[in-house]
Specification:
Protein name: DUF5686 family protein
Helix content: 10-25%
Radius of gyration: 31 Å
Structural class: mainly beta
CATH class of the largest domain: Mainly Beta
Organism: Christiangramia sediminicola
CATH topology of the largest domain: Porin
Number of helices: 10
Pfam family, one: DUF5686
Strand content: over 45%
Distance between the termini: 48 Å
Number of strands: 47
CATH architecture of the largest domain: Beta Barrel
């Protein structure tokens, strides 16, 4: 067996060494500019096109060959090449006589007229516009590979390093089989029925969430690796792209070969490539797109013609990424990482797998999807109550017969060698551990064995507690797949009080997010704060407001609750709690002629998060968000009862609507509208504030602190309270100023408004505050990402609550935007 393997690899090596790789470039002989997509035809080989920088690579299988180079508007060249050819630069001479091209119209630019007509007929060619429904299967092979080196089967896996992965063979290989269905009434859905990941005990589900192979080029935006590019057939395509007809392709269904190139590259992200448009219907037969520079990205879309429907339907998509100069980002394994993928010292594999060694420039990322069993007569409704991508619980347990039946791309001996080898390499490099850390860090935890350390509990500071040090976290799946135990303890060095909490979460059903919670805690909370159980970020590197809060109340809470996700975009939580409350200041609440400083509450709270337009991936382990789209809504109802010795009865309501408009030029506008309303016996501890973030100090620079994203920067702490209020936050960010690749500051215009009222303020003793019935307004500017995530913020207070002096109305702070 061993001798057979050696003979096999010798034969492969001899075949590789029998080929000569000749790089080259095609340029305009007069201007020295590269000619994108020039046609090169080898006498003994296939046709190929140059890249957008005019570059190409020829594989010479014999001792010599002849090639013909042609380009519209240039004289055709015939060249002889041999094994001795090391590099081939081809200069083409322009033809100034009238070109022999098919004129589409009498206009000055036939290509623009052609594209204009293609846009007009787009809805007649887009499968999702033409068909009532369709259904098909797809097979995807996703690899990160070294193009020229083979895997060494003799390596000692116990001493393997990640350099072995990078230089000896593939670093990652996964396969996926999915069923796709579409209905014009209910949209798209993908069911993953088979998934296999070499080297990993559990599938890396985040790879399924990547838009590696976008389905359609007819959309307004073309999304690839979390980056949106202008669509070459979008309504505004002629504003974003220049077009040129390169040729007409003579086949059973002739096509125009149309070259497109970004027109406003510094403003709108665009790709460069070729559209093959059917001469009769102007539908897409094939498309090639490239992006060179920051990364080398190549995308090919192939379509198949169905005469009974007079329609071209996607049959194959291929995406390949090679090393580049850096600067772009893609998302792999749940983290956003730099794609110099494979650049020395800091690229894709080094970030994912943790290698500090130098990677080989032959490395590339490749994803190929092939569609089959296509049914264009499908006319059933798609289950929209589920996620856009649903992973079957049996998808990871498919046998060899399943894969043999559904593999539509050759699974080579190299693939088999990868599966045999990568298991030990992944283990040696502790890759699963690195992915586990990356996922945990995104939620604010750091895994240590069976314990996920809560990073938010380690260190904090505020004006009441001073330095607050602590330890907390929760158990992970290494202890149990059925529950976790969570808890924390902290100590404030200024108030000299220990705070703590202990609880458990029982996983009734992970896939639909059904959990049973039991908790006990003794801690402090900001007076008049309203915290949504759902929709809150569980972790932030810095909480801007927390530092300057100085008005808290003590509480001891026992609670039980149930979480349930009715659909991926509608998440809910119900909590029943009992609280003992006592004050940190001389505050008291008068109710029915009785004065309360300490009181008990029995409450029931229902909270929901509704994201109707977001897209989700549903796996056996839970939901992963594919695309966060807006608007989204967060709501909460809290009812306090006078049972079980509860002192007050009141109701608190909250509703928040968030919307964001993102543009292809990387500018965006954000809106947050929030309303709160309370009635009944409301102590100040359970009223509302409007997220003030201005320390109570006279000097502007003594108030210098961290600006929040949705707080009022000129509103002083403890200045206003409400029992009913409404707030509007508007942020408009201009497109980044591209001063250099590493220095791109962002200018943000801000407008904030609040209005409110307070019922029975005379019931609140030993505290003074204002109300918001006249309306509060401030306007501001931010200049973000000046250095290492830091920026500057200013805001000015105007309107009914304008104060006498400039310094009282003005705030000057810094901003901090860091991403894990």
């Amino acid at each position: 067996m061993r001798n057979s393997l050696i003979l096999f690899f010798i034969l492969i090596a001899s075949n590789l060494f029998g080929q000569t790789l000749i790089p080259g470039k095609v340029i305009n002989k007069e201007t020295r500019e590269p000619l994108a997509y020039a046609e090169i035809q080898l006498k003994k080989g296939n046709q190929l096109l140059t890249n957008i920088d005019g570059s190409f690579e020829l594989r010479l299988t014999g001792d010599s060959d002849s090639l013909q180079v042609s380009y519209v508007g240039f004289q055709t060249i015939n060249i002889q090449i041999s094994k001795a050819t090391r590099y081939l630069q081809i200069g083409m001479t322009p033809k100034y006589e009238e070109l022999e091209t098919v004129m589409i119209s009498d206009g000055p630019n036939p290509a623009e007229e052609l594209i204009r007509r293609a846009i007009e007929q787009r809805d007649s060619n887009d499968p999702e516009k033409v068909l009532k429904g369709y259904k098909y299967k797809s097979y995807t092979k996703f690899i990160i590979d070294n193009e020229f080196n083979s895997i060494s089967l003799q390596a000692d896996s116990t001493s393997s390093t990640m350099q072995t992965i990078i230089n000896e063979g593939r670093a990652y290989l996964s396969e996926k089989v999915a069923e796709h269905s579409y209905s014009s009434n209910s949209g798209r859905r993908e069911d993953v029925i088979g998934i296999e990941t070499a080297g990993f005990k559990k599938p890396v589900y985040n790879v399924l969430a990547m838009e590696v192979n976008p389905f359609s080029l007819y959309q307004r935006d073309y999304e690839l690796y979390k980056t949106k590019y202008a669509g070459p057939l979008a309504n505004n395509a002629l504003r974003n792209y220049d077009y040129q007809i390169l040729d007409t392709i003579d086949s059973e269904r002739p096509a125009y070969m149309v070259y497109f190139k970004p027109k406003r590259e510094q403003i709108v992200a665009g790709l460069e490539g070729i559209l093959y448009l059917d001469t009769e219907s102007l539908s897409i037969q094939k498309a090639i797109a490239q992006l060179l520079g920051a990364i080398k990205l190549e995308v090919t879309h192939n379509y198949k013609y169905y005469p009974e429907k007079e329609l071209w339907f996607p049959s194959e998509q291929i995406t390949r990424i090679r090393p580049g100069a850096g600067g772009k980002e893609i998302s792999v394994f749940g983290g956003t990482i730099s794609v110099g993928a494979v650049q020395k010292g800091k690229g894709l594999l080094n970030n994912v797998f943790g290698s500090k060694t130098t990677s080989n420039n032959d490395l590339y990322l490749n994803s190929t999807t092939r569609n089959y069993d296509i049914d264009l007569e499908y006319n059933a409704d798609v289950k929209r109550s589920d996620a856009d991508i649903y992973v079957d619980s049996e998808s990871t347990n498919r046998d060899k017969d399943f894969w043999k039946k559904n593999r539509k791309i050759e699974f080579s001996s190299r693939d088999e060698a990868t599966k045999a080898k990568v298991d030990s390499l992944i283990e040696a490099g502790d890759v699963e551990r690195k992915i586990e850390i990356k996922k945990a860090m995104a939620s604010g935890y750091y895994p240590i064995g069976f314990w996920d350390l809560d990073l938010s509990k380690i260190f904090k500071f505020n004006n009441y507690e001073g330095i607050r040090l602590g330890f907390g976290g929760k158990t992970n799946d290494r202890l149990s797949d059925n529950f976790n135990i969570n808890g924390y303890t902290t100590y404030g060095f200024k108030d000299e009080v220990i705070k703590y909490g202990l609880g458990t979460q029982i996983y009734l059903n992970k896939q639909n997010g059904t959990f049973l919670n039991f908790n006990f805690s003794r801690d402090i909370k900001e007076v008049a704060s309203f915290t949504y159980l759902k929709g809150q970020n569980t972790f932030s590197i810095l909480e801007p407001r927390f530092v300057n809060i100085n008005f808290f109340y003590n509480y001891r809470r026992y609670s039980a609750g149930l979480e349930h996700r009715f659909t991926p975009n509608f998440d809910t939580q119900l909590r029943i709690s009992r609280e003992d409350i006592w004050q940190t200041k001389e505050y008291s609440y008068v109710n029915n002629s009785e004065e309360f400083q300490d009181y008990d509450l029995t409450t029931a709270t229902f909270s929901f998060l509704w994201r109707p337009f977001s897209r989700f991936l549903n796996t056996p382990d839970g939901n992963i968000i594919l695309e966060k789209d807006f608007p989204q809504f967060t709501g909460q109802v809290e009812q306090s009862f006078s049972v079980f010795d509860g002192d007050f009865e009141f109701t608190r309501l909250g509703l928040k609507a968030e919307h964001e408009i993102k543009r292809l030029d990387n500018s965006r506008t954000e809106f947050i509208l929030e309303g709160n309303y309370a009635f009944g016996d409301i102590p100040l501890t359970h009223a509302f504030h409007s997220y003030p973030n201005n320390p109570n100090r006279s000097s502007i620079f003594r108030r210098f602190s961290v600006a929040g994203r949705n707080s009022f920067e000129t509103m002083y702490f403890n200045e206003f309270y409400s029992t009913s209020q409404a707030m509007l936050h508007v942020r408009h960010q201009l497109r980044p100023f591209k001063i250099s690749n590493s220095f791109q500051p962002e200018l943000v215009f801000i407008s904030r408004h609040a209005i409110g009222d307070f019922e029975d303020p005379e019931k609140h003793q030993n505290v003074s505050f204002n109300t918001l019935e006249h309306g509060y307004s401030e306007a501001g500017l931010e200049l973000n990402k000046l250095f290492a995530g830091f920026g500057l913020s200013t805001a000015y207070r105007y309107g009914a609550y304008h104060l006498p002096t400039f310094k009282e109305n003005f705030s000057f702070k810094f901003t901090l935007q860091l991403q894990l």
